[in-house]
Amino acid sequence: MNKFEQLGLNESLLLAIKDLGFENPSEVQEKAIPVLLEQNTDLVALAQTGTGKTAAFGFPLIQKIDAENRNTQALILSPTRELCLQITNEIKLYSKYIKGLHTVAVYGGASITEQAREVKRGAQIIVATPGRMQDMINRGLVNIKNIDFCILDEADEMLNMGFYDDICSILSDTPEEKNTWLFSATMPAEVARIGKQFMSNPQEITVGHKNSGSATVSHEFYIVNARDRYEALKRLADANPDIFSVVFCRTKRDTQAIAEKLIEDGYNAAALHGDLSQAQRDGVMKSFRGRQIQMLVATDVAARGIDVDNVTHVVNYQLPDEIETYNHRSGRTGRAGKLGTSIVIVTKSELRKIHSIERIIKQKFEEKTIPNGIEICEIQLLHLANKIKDTEVDHEIDNYLPAINEVLDGLSKEELIKKMVSVEFNRFISYYKKKRDLSSQSSGERSSEGRAPQEGDAVRYFINIGSRDNFDWMSLKDYLKETLELGRDDVFKVDVKEGFSFFNTDAEHSDKVMEILNNVQLEGRRINVEISKNDGGGRRDHNGRNSGGERRGGFGGERRGGFGGERKSFGGDRDRGSRSESRGGFGGRSSDRSERRGGSDDRAPRNERRSGGTTPRRSDSPAPRRPRRS
Ligand code: ADP
Ligand code: MG
């Protein structure tokens, strides 16, 4: 007999479980399912994230629901829209062989009337976020007065997010006799309070130690000087070419900044935080799930809904303020029985926090040192060799081989290998050649790598278009780049005022700038460019980036690392697409650009430019990331 059958689950669930490919119940499932099936009881179940709690309540719930009765019989509350949708999705999968059973998701940010309509059509199970649920109740759009089951999923997260009042209010709208099942990874005081207030004699199930970390996650810390945090992060990424990670920062601002830096440096990264629109967040999560993003830089709150299997690393770029939060972070990896690593980048002064965390998670951290340049080069080289070995050959290439052979004729196998590997590898060598070790014991003086590169003189221009013409610094920069046919970093320090703006280019482009721009028209108006007397020019700054410009929420779509034009950044298209629509004005440009970005036409020139070496690029990065193609 199948293990799930032994737990008492019926035929239609067993069929669905078979389709899902679940072979054995997880521990929390094994403990919760029989209890919930056999008894009408309240329940508190504590288990780490990723242990299969959704099915632990979902299976018995579905079996107990009367699918022939169209009234709402169960309410599942979950902290975020992401989770709400995910649970809904899971429940639908579990119940796919049960005719007439309907599950509806109720969450903020989507049409409340549409959701109400769906509920009205008959939803035995509602999965909701507390805020929207409260809203629906207030407007009389749902009736939960007769439900039999209420499930509080990720209760600790919900309370963390400040839903205490909403939850209390929602629960008081439900009947006394119902059963309440509370699922949580941890048991802070507030959760206990809810339990006391709204549950009677709950059964308790605990999987693993209370509050302890998952056994499939190993914990490492790296001591660095505070100023080396970012460099350390890059090295950790470079030392793990297949990294698929969530990087935690403490604030939205840091999250955005680190993601932008990573993107600039050529990594497949994106930010996830509360200042992004729902559409942007959805876009980021889609890319992350699709693995186009290898480093998802997130705040704790934004990362709450993340349930992506196969995350290889959680990186604590900064430790959380509340040590409890560490558990939630590290629970993003090591899910569904997979192994994962939780990395902490710490300064010496934060070391005692590591020891406090060890006490909470009842696991030891391993102290490690940030790999040095040579080690990273070795890793990357081997990775590359393996990639070459594992690459499947598409025989389309045969057609081109004669021409290729002609070019490469006369090279020995050894030479050919060296050169092939060097194509990808030179940038690592040249980047890391100059780099020092990052162990925090190293001398306190800042090394040369922190200094702005000394590059060619820049020229600052005045131009008679500005925000009145619907430009902001990003769109003006794009417009200039496109009009001047310059590369992505060639226009910088764009500063947009109302009726005019300033920008810089390297001196070598100044003839071109004057010549082209003074001969174009913008919506019928002559553009006028002058070299600015007001010297804001000087040298290009470290990042070659606008210092004065305002930063909107985008991910700096155009700031892809200089290598390989295919690298993508995320959210930017969407963001700008909508902005340009709402502005009217230069609406066409943004969409043109996003099309172009998706295409391959800007790859070759970029690489040519690079190898031509005329313009110094951001050189402070090995820019190793490429999109995964798996
Ligand atoms: P939790 O709510 O505890 O964080 P989930 O319910 O989201 O965990 O499950 C985590 C992952 O494990 C999901 O991808 C889920 O499909 C998978 N999973 C759940 N139960 C099983 C099982 N018995 N066998 C294999 N995979 C499972
Ligand atoms: Mg869950």
TrEMBL record:
GO terms, biological process: response to cold
The UniProt record lists the keyword Hydrolase: yes
PROSITE patterns according to UniProt: DEAD_ATP_HELICASE, HELICASE_ATP_BIND_1, HELICASE_CTER, Q_MOTIF
Locus of motif Q motif: 2-30
InterPro entries hit by this protein: DbpA/CsdA_RNA-bd_dom, DEAD/DEAH_box_helicase_dom, DEAD/DEAH_RhlB, DEAD_box_RNA_helicases, Helicase_ATP-bd, Helicase_C-like, Nucleotide-bd_a/b_plait_sf, P-loop_NTPase
Protein name: RNA helicase
Helicase ATP-binding domain residues: 34-205
Recorded family membership: Belongs to the DEAD box helicase family.
Domain Helicase C-terminal span(s) in chain numbering: 225-378
Pfam families per the UniProt record, alphabetical: DbpA (PF03880), DEAD (PF00270), Helicase_C (PF00271)
GO cellular component annotations of the record: cytosol; ribosome
Stretches of the chain forming a coiled coil according to its record: none
Entry keywords, A to Z: ATP-binding, Helicase, Hydrolase, Nucleotide-binding
EC numbers: 3.6.4.13
SMART domains with a match to the protein in the record: DEXDc, HELICc
Compositional bias annotation for Basic and acidic residues: 529-582, 590-611
PANTHER family: ATP-DEPENDENT RNA HELICASE DEAD (PTHR47963:SF8), DEAD-BOX ATP-DEPENDENT RNA HELICASE 47, MITOCHONDRIAL (PTHR47963)
MF (Gene Ontology): ATP binding; hydrolase activity; RNA helicase activity; RNA strand annealing activity
